[in-house]
Each structure stands twice: as structure tokens, then as C-alpha cells.
Amino acid sequence: MPASVPAADAPEPTLYAPRAPSRVCVVSEEFSAEADEGVRIFARETARALARHADVMALATASVSTHVGARVASSPRTLISLGLRQELVRYDPEMVVYVPRASTTLWSFVRSRVLKWYAPRATVLLVGLQPRRHGRVARTLIPHLAPDLVFVQAPESQRYLQTLGCHVGLVRSGVDLDRFKPVSSARRRELRQRYDLAEERPVCLHVGHVTAGRGVRDLAALASRGQCQAVFVCSTSTDQDVRLAGDLREAGVRVIDVYLPNVEELYQLADCYVFPVTSEGSAIEIPLSVLEACACDLPVVTTRFGGLVHLPGVQSCPAVAFVDSADALLAQAHRMSHSTLHGTRSLVADYSWDAVAKDLISVVRPPLDVAVEPPCASQAADAWYSDSKDG
Predict the structure, then answer these.
(1) What domains does the chain contain, in order, with CATH numbers?
(2) CA-to-CA distance for 207 and 234, rounded, in angstroms?
């Protein structure tokens, strides 16, 4: 992935240094060991991966429960906070990676400018995992607020922000390829028994938020046909639509609305992964759940969402079906769940969290060689969330 594609009229930033940064600060609202939502997981796992290449401070700006590995500097919406400033001045980072839940809103650009004021010697990166569009006033202000580099996940978002005068790079999502992996038929049967699912009927899985914008009512139609078992694992770190969850249960969908520390087991017992999301604000542009399904070598039925259509090799993979309607999704889910198609794991071979870290590090040094792991960096990384299987 390219490190940076500057807009035609934007001034060239000083992005390259002779070495990788030795001190990186990752700033986000929270770093929770039990996060099961895309932006939160991205921030946490990116911090952990960066810790294999540099000294990392994870800085949470919300006064919420965080993992012991992160520092907390409770801040208002503007990030104008004496405590936050003191943390950054004391740490003196060479790079600041800002991962806001709001993505690339005007306020996120304002906050990234505040971070630059607090750490003027650092290269400041704003990571926007969902597409955003802006009104006239915001489009006027953003060129004056833009950080050194904005990272997004789809070429469409990249081109749009370039028109606003931003320097824009592409960053992938990541997946733990050691944790999310295929299992044997015997192990799959064992997992079906553990989760009280029938062994003889295929399982179609979806993992994510209980919101109408994710198109999850399609799971009800899938379950009502009786040809497969529809299983929906809900995110517990976001608000849930209780009525929608009840409707899905009544339709025959197995709804799991508790935090699962071993969520990989649900992918491993499934026969097919279904991603019915159409609303661009309902998931990050390269959804983690799709990568996790691919890592487990599941056939995938998905809408043409965000950056998924741009994954290398995805268009020619027979185990991936892109659909444009609910009827097509149901038909392909039935076909895929009753098939023996595989081959999706190879699509995400280059989507480790370490690769995400290198996407980011490449902007502050020429991306010609592999980053050298400093002494004790691996121990520091392993200390991150060491008591969390999710990490």
C-alpha cells in the first residue's frame, strides 16, 4: 500500500526520517481488553503491534475502564486538556497516531491540530476508518487543520480527502492469523456441541452491531428458510437495538449478546460468513469480521462494502460472493454454506497487525527495508494486554 499520495496543491510535509520512530504515542478514546468493535480493536491492536518496533505509549482520552497497559488523560471533546498536554510533552513522541471513533469529521481534524500543538516535533497521523463527507464550512477549514498525514482504507475516501488538500495514505485492517485459523472437522463438531448447534445443518455466521443499518434483518429471512442455522454474535461494547435482537430471535436466529473471549470459535464452527452491511457508517471500511472469517478460511457472502472490493485477489476468489440485493445474499449464502469452497485465508495473508504497524511506520522512514526490532521490544509488546486473549 502506498505510504502517501499528496494532493496536487498541498505543501509537501516532512514525512521521512532516516530511521523508524523510537517513541510513538497512539491516542484514542479507550484501550479496552474486552473491546469487540472495529475502531476500538484497531486502536488497541495497532498500539500493540507498534510496540514491536518502537517504544509506545497508548493514551486514552475518555474516562472509561481501560486496560492497565494504557494511560488515561481524560479530555473534553476538543482535547484541550492540561493533563493530555502534560502527557505528550513529557513523552515527547516522534509520531502520534490518532484513531478517533468519529473518523475524519471536522472535529477530528480540530483534535489532530490540537495534538500537533502539544507535540510539534512529532509526525501526526489521523486514522479514519469510516468514510465521512463534509459541508461547505468544513471543506474550507480542513485544509488548514489537516495533520501531516491522514490514513483511510479505501481509494474513494483517499481521493475525496485529497481534494480537500490533505496528504492521504492507505492503511489496511489487521487480523491475528495465529488466533483466527481453520480447524479440523472433529474440532468443528466439538465446537458445535459446545455452542448447542446442530451438526447436520450448515451454520451461516455474522458478527457485529445490533443495528438496522447493518442489514441484519436479512439473517431473519435466512433463518426462516430452515436450510441453515443463522448465528449472530453481537458487539457488546456498543449500544444494542434490543427490539431488533428480539425480532431476530423470534425469526429463529441464534443471537449471542454476551462478550465472547474466544469469538474465533464461532468462526471455526461456521460454514459461511455473511456480511449484509450497506450503510457506510455501520462498519469500518475494511471490516475486521470479514478478515477474521477469511483467516478461518470460510466462504464469504458480502455486499460491495467499503474497501472489501479492493482486497488483492478477492474478485477472482471462488469462495467470495459479492451481492447487490437481499435476494442475492440469501441465495449465495445457501449455496456457499452447502459448498466445500475454501481459499479465503490466502486473501488475508498480508493483513497481520504487524503489517498495519508497518503501513504507519513507513511514513517516517523510506519504506525500503524491514523495521529492526529494538532490544526488549518484543517483551514490551507481549506485556501489552498479556491477561487478555483478545489481544
Answers:
(1) 23-174+352-383 (3.40.50.2000), 185-348 (3.40.50.2000)
(2) 6
